[in-house]
């Protein structure tokens, strides 16, 4: 691809484990990519030695916003995208300094931190899973005692962390699982904070969106994919029209509340009573295989034109939300290489087994 064929250059922030997905996805739409990789001391431990994948036209080591902005400006970067939760804050600060469209860096945690998101939605009266952001098992146990529920879910506070949450039945299991989940959270996100929530109902959905300004300059949240998580909807390819409408409206409200003004986001919901969507978490970061661009478009002109939309899925816009596609493309199963399996983060649930001796020790700690 020659320079004359490119639409522009996009900086991909912290593409630790994305491989060459971003260069390939953007190249198909005429964009060059520059990898912005934080220096070793700024990375989570799991990614300290991660190498930059092939395919990027350049690499910038991020040591500070001022230096990075200067380097990206020299490379002609016209768009910035975070490759994951670890890239959200630097991406928003860099975009702000470059004068590019983006969210307010002062509120960056709203775009990736589960605790900050729940607190924000609570203030606005938008339903979400009940929970608490905790820095110690004592704080989590105090919340369990104040809010007795049939079950709980313990997870890293940072959304998108490749660590499976742990289901806990009571305070003793929360204490038993705490250290393992905390260690995994630190390893993959750099943050030791955890979130303890009520156990989500079985009906769960993932909504992928891209936000762009509408003709009036207000954020328009475009739904590009909606997936139901098995086994709740094992036999249904597409959820009911009522559920789709509820999820679409709720997604728009949530993204507005979290200050998402442009770019991609992945938002997860659980369905409560009367199919009420409850926010699980939202991550305003890129998803490379689903970069919704077409040649000639700028990063603020998402989504693709109507010709890229299936003919049998008419666009509908309600409360600044548009549905383009309800069925995600099917992925062909493939056997990962041994090296890929060894390099992949552990995502299996942490097994919690409480022996009588450990139960007595936990009971003493919780009674203090």
Written account of the structure:
The protein contains nine helices and 14 strands. The protein is α/β, with parallel strands linked by helices. The strands form three sheets. The chain has a six-stranded mixed sheet with strand order 12-11-9-10-14-13. It has a four-stranded parallel sheet with strand order 3-2-1-4, with helices on both faces. Helix 2 packs across helix 3. It starts with 7 loop residues before the first strand and ends with a helix. The model is unreliable at 231-237 and 287-352 (pLDDT under 50).
Please tag this protein with its features.
single chain, 368 residues, alpha/beta, 6-stranded mixed β-sheet, 4-stranded parallel β-sheet, 9 helices, 14 strands, globular
What would you report as the Rg, rounded to the nearest angstrom? 21 Å
The best one-word shape is globular
Q: Could you say which structural class the secondary elements and strand pairing correspond to? A: alpha/beta
β content, as a range?
Answer: 15-25%
Helix content: 25-40%
The pLDDT mean sits at 79
**Unreliable stretches covering 5 or more consecutive residues:** 231-237, 287-352
Question: Count of DSSP helices?
Answer: 9
N- to C-terminal separation? 66 Å
Q: Tell me about the largest β-sheet.
A: 6 strands, mixed
Strands, total number:
14
**Sequence of secondary-structure elements:** EHEEHEHHEHEEHEEEHEEEEHH
Tell me the strand order in the biggest sheet: 12-11-9-10-14-13
């Amino acid at each position: 691809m020659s320079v004359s064929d490119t639409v522009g250059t996009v900086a991909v922030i912290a593409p630790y484990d994305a491989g060459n997905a971003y260069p390939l996805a953007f190249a198909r739409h005429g964009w060059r990519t520059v990898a912005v990789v934080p220096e070793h001391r700024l990375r989570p431990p799991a990614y300290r030695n991660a190498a930059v994948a092939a395919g990027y036209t350049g690499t910038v080591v991020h040591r500070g916003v001022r230096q990075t902005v200067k380097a990206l400006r020299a490379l002609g970067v016209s768009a910035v995208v975070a490759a994951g939760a670890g890239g959200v804050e630097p991406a928003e600060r860099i975009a702000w300094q470059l004068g590019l469209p983006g969210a307010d860096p002062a509120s960056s945690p709203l775009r990736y931190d589960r605790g900050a998101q729940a607190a924000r939605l609570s203030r606005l009266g938008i339903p979400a899973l009940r929970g608490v952001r905790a820095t110690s098992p004592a704080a989590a146990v105090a919340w369990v005692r104040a809010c007795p529920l049939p079950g709980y879910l313990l997870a890293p506070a940072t959304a998108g962390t490749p660590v499976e949450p742990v289901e806990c039945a009571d305070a003793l299991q929360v204490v038993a699982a705490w250290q393992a989940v905390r260690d995994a959270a630190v390893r993959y996100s750099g943050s030791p904070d955890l979130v303890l929530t009520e156990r989500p109902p079985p009906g769960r959905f993932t909504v992928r969106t891209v936000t762009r300004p509408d003709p009036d300059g207000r954020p328009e949240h475009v739904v590009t994919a909606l997936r139901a998580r098995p086994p709740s909807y094992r036999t249904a390819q597409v959820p009911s029209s009522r559920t789709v409408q509820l999820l679409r409206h709720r997604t728009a409200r949530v993204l507005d509340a979290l200050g998402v003004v442009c770019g991609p986001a992945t938002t997860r919901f659980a369905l409560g009573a009367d199919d009420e969507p409850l926010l699980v978490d939202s991550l305003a970061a890129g998803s490379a295989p689903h970069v919704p661009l077409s040649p000639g478009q700028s990063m603020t002109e998402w989504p693709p034109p109507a010709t890229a939309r299936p003919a049998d899925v008419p666009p509908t816009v309600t409360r600044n939300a548009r549905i383009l596609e309800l069925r995600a493309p099917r992925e062909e199963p493939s056997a990962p290489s041994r090296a890929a399996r060894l390099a992949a983060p552990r995502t299996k649930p942490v097994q919690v087994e409480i022996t009588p001796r450990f139960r007595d020790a936990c009971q003493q700690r919780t009674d203090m």
